[in-house]
UniProtKB/TrEMBL annotation:
Peptidase M20 dimerisation domain boundaries: 186-292
Swiss-Prot/TrEMBL keywords: Cobalt, Hydrolase, Metal-binding, Zinc
Entry's EC annotation: 3.5.1.16
PROSITE patterns reported in the protein's UniProt record: ARGE_DAPE_CPG2_1
CDD domains hit by this protein: M20_ArgE (cd03894)
The name this protein goes by in its record: Acetylornithine deacetylase
Gene: argE_1
Organism field: Symmachiella dynata
Signal sequence region: none
InterPro entries xref list: ArgE/DapE_CS, Bact_exopeptidase_dim_dom, Peptidase_M20, Peptidase_M20_dimer, Peptidase_M20A
Transmembrane residue ranges: none
BP GO terms, sorted: L-arginine biosynthetic process
EC top class named in words: hydrolase
GO molecular function: acetylornithine deacetylase activity; metal ion binding
Length: 391
């Protein structure tokens, strides 16, 4: 089964929902069933796979096509997990084709890209083109929440003793599958996310002056963060490809009941970093601004993800090569920058030139009726093959 459309239908029908930090359980959560399928699928090709456990029961899966010791090595990476299916208006795990589109959770992000890469990989194995590179297919886990899969992946070549048979040393280049409309992403932002907490003193709401309202304190923090938005625009020039540095509060939680003055309030902050910014230092910069501009105490909690951006400084030649493959199949496309983040930034940070290219539009990712254009899916499989085959 090497047809990318059939492959994608199969992948959609295998739930691999990232819990996204929620206390949930069930067969649809995690990548276990997807990992098992991939092992079996590679075995039918006669290709050995290696599993690397990243979290309990959650694995990166790697397979290698060997063209020869004198050939460069290309890493193809696509993540196994999807975002949750809450609020979807279509059956998420029942692939359906209508009017040239294939619907289902992950169709666009990023099981479509994975299906295209798997189809190209299978073709390499069966046809063994003369000019091919060595190719390592990485099906990484846990991308959507904390990027833990790719964080562990890069340790295979960046930490002594971590190498495995399929990837003993760093690959020469990497191509990451995400929905880019077959354009080549050479720069993107990263995301640093952390919680900020205010504390107070609880009391009965009939006598609020006996307590200290943590939500009221947080309101001043939020006002300060709104001022910080303008500060960012004034002090950090936007990147020409992937736009400005931004900050956003996406979640707030506080209080026990309406008749109790709250003694705690927390917000979750999303800070998008652009090339040239330090994803950890931006937390201290935010804190310094707030302490200078507001008059309440607060606590910054440790980040659960630290942003690493993708810079276009070291991937121009790689992008040009990919654009040649794209043009041969789908006509002229372009180098672009995007606002979202991908596994490519962490691979690039380890010293491996990296780009992002795949079928589908980011406008469809994570949507209630996710779909991918079938023609573009087939084109992507041909593009990946040509790129790896040296055609």
């Amino acid at each position: 089964m090497h047809d990318p459309v059939e492959l994608l239908e199969t992948l959609i029908a295998i739930p691999s929902v990232n819990p996204m930090g929620r206390d949930v359980s069930g067969p649809e959560f995690g990548e276990a069933r997807m990992t098992a399928f991939l092992e079996d699928w590679f075995a039918t090709l006669g290709v050995a796979t290696e599993k690397v456990e990243v979290l309990p029961g959650r694995f990166n899966v790697l397979a290698r096509y060997d063209a020869g010791p004198d050939r460069p090595t290309i890493l193809l990476d696509a993540h196994q997990d999807t975002v949750p299916v809450d609020g979807m208006t279509i059956p998420p795990f029942e692939p359906a084709i209508q009017e040239g589109k294939l619907f289902g959770r992950g169709a666009c992000d990023v099981k479509g890209g994975m299906a295209a890469m798997l189809a190209a990989f299978a073709r390499l194995v069966t046809q063994r083109p003369a000019g091919a590179a060595n190719v390592v297919m990485s099906c990484s886990c846990e991308e959507e929440a904390e990027a833990l899969g790719v964080k562990d992946l890069v340790k295979l070549w960046s930490e002594p003793g971590r190498g495995i048979a399929s990837l003993k040393i760093a690959p020469d280049v990497a191509v990451v599958a995400e929905p880019t409309d077959l354009d080549v992403v050479v720069a993107h932002r990263g995301a640093t996310r952390w919680k900020l907490r205010t504390t107070g003193r609880a009391c009965h709401s009939s006598r609020p002056d006996d307590g200290v309202n943590a939500i009221y304190k947080m309101s001043q923090v939020l006002s300060g963060l709104q001022k910080f938005v303008a500060h960012l625009k004034e002090t950090i020039p936007a990147h020409p490809l992937c736009g400005p540095a931004t900050i956003s509060v996406g979640r707030i939680e506080g209080g026990l009941s309406v008749n109790t003055v709250p003694d705690r309030c927390e917000i979750e902050i999303d800070r998008r970093v652009i090339p040239g910014e330090d994803g950890f230092a931006v937390i201290a910069e935010t804190e310094a601004f707030l302490r200078k501009n507001i008059d309440v105490d607060f606590e910054m909690l440790p980040p659960w993800i630290t942003g690493i951006s993708l810079s276009d400084e070291h991937n121009s030649k790689l992008a040009d090569r990919m654009l040649e493959s794209v043009a041969a199949v789908a006509g002229p496309h372009k180098k672009v920058g995007v606002a979202y983040g991908t596994n490519a930034s962490r691979i690039a940070a380890s010293g491996v030139p990296s780009i992002v290219c795949g079928p589908g539009s980011i406008n469809q990712a994570h949507t209630e009726s996710e779909w991918i254009d079938i023609e573009e899916l087939r084109q992507a499989a041909e593009i990946y093959y040509r790129f790896c085959a040296g055609e």
